[in-house]
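Worked Example 4.2. Consider the chain below.
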Amino acid sequence: MAEPRWSVGINFDSKCNARCAHCCVSSSPNATANLDDDLVDNIVDELLREPNVREIGLTGGEPLIRRARTMSIIARITASGRVASCVTNGFWGGHTPSRRPSPGRVRGCRTAGAHAELRRLPLALRQT
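Applying the procedure from the previous section yields the following structure tokens:
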């Protein structure tokens, strides 16, 4: 059987703690568009049944504003042996690496650098 080859992204919430001029999905602190949690669970379940899916990514807005929910989905994905990714602006990183919730500690989750535009925001604006 061929190796799974699809990477699928789920944009489950448009709320973001930043208002970036380049945002292609118009996320912002005032955004209200989101997918119902039950719908997201059903989508994830369906993707996990699909043998061609290698990776499921979570994005938004800022998924880690809803950290417990995001980490719960990541845990389900990685428990299935799939790769989970999360597109984040890095607000949770603050100035001290020890403050980071480290999604990379979840097996199979990969991380990337912090969002460049957000690094210029005062710390008070980063936390919601």
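Residues 13 and 34 are 4 Å apart (CA to CA). The chain is about 25% helix and 15% strand. Compare this with Example 4.1 before moving on.
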